[in-house]
Specification:
257 residues, mainly alpha, 12 helices, 2 strands, globular
């Protein structure tokens, strides 16, 4: 019953009118105007679906997803107030030179949310090593989904895959994410809207909790290791180039556009 309720809540929340206007418009990779309102719908759907999950997963997902949304909002709308940099190395280098970027703020805000969510999931064990693994899985997934939001539908397709993997042990959270995706992917694939940092970080944070909530330490460690490896790889290689050069990945990436 909970998964059905979560899926319905995740979908219904995407139907709530999202903000629009020039402030929410950006240019996509083709130089065409696209609305960031899809990110608001995605965040609302992911969080609404998470509310149907049992505690402590419910509150861990709400905290991590809300932190992701807040950090993403800063990056989407307040970037001009801060120093600019590209990639994890660039943001950390700027910080080392006393310059604060939105990327640095995102690391802090998402990290705090991930830490709090991981602490809730780890009760009553309270083992620092397990907390750290859960924290990396949550924060890393939030970042990874954002890194994939470069083409219509790509980040949401990756979220589907993650939600299916986590569905056995975090079914309400996964179901809520799938309901959210059902409500947002048509406009995302068509290029009318995009997730932006707000939507991608929020959805990724909630998905990260679903993965971090897995009862197997090996699965949690594998999730944390995989997202960390992919994030580090993104500093050196282009995901878009790799996908375009692989026929299978390219076909999956183009589906629905």
């Amino acid at each position: 019953m909970r998964p059905l309720l979560a899926a319905a809540a995740g979908f219904a929340a995407t139907r709530v009118p999202a903000p629009r206007g020039a402030r929410w418009e950006r240019m996509n990779y083709r130089g065409e105007p696209v609305s960031l309102s899809g990110g608001v719908s995605a965040a609302a759907g992911a969080l609404a679906g998470a509310l149907a999950a049992p505690a402590p997963v419910r509150w861990a997902a709400v905290i991590a997803g809300s932190a992701g949304a807040a950090a993403g909002y800063i990056d989407d709308h307040e970037e001009s107030r801060f120093a600019t940099a590209k990639g994890l190395h660039g943001h950390l280098s700027s910080l080392a030179h006393g310059r604060v970027t939105t990327g640095v703020l995102k690391i802090a805000v998402i990290g705090i949310g991930a830490g709090a969510g991981a602490a809730l999931l780890g009760q009553p064990d309270r083992k620092i090593g397990d907390w750290a693994v859960r924290c990396v899985a949550i924060a890393g997934t939030a970042n990874l989904i954002n890194l994939l939001d470069l083409r219509p539908g790509r980040a949401l397709k990756a979220t589907v895959l993650g939600a299916v993997i986590a569905s056995r042990h975090a079914s309400p959270v996964s179901a809520g994410l799938l309901g959210m995706i059902a409500g947002t992917i048509p406009s995302d694939l068509s290029g009318r809207t995009m997730l932006g940092d707000l939507g991608a970080n929020a959805a990724g944070g909630v998905l990260g909790v679903a993965l971090a909530a897995h009862p197997s330490r090996r699965v949690r460690a594998a999730s944390a290791g995989a997202v960390t490896a992919l994030i580090l790889a993104s500093e050196k290689v282009s995901f878009s180039r790799i996908i375009d050069q692989n026929p299978v990945l390219s076909t999956m990436d183009e589906w629905g556009r």
